[in-house]
Amino acid sequence: MLRIYGLLFSFFLIGIIFVRIPQDSVGLSSFATKSNLLGSPRSAQRFLNILTALAILMYVGIAIKLNLANT
What we know:
Layout: H1 2-19, H2 26-35, H3 41-70
């Protein structure tokens, strides 16, 4: 079951990294402000930063538990 959670977090992290808006890309940032997909760009960036950090911490915790279980 822990392997499934690890796999889900891996795909989730890959997806959330692709969703993040690059700061130097004018095309993507203008799309985000016009579509209002994630709210204001600043709040969306902060939310994605927090979500990414939490997901990374959970993924590292799962990876450590899996490694300890295999030894």
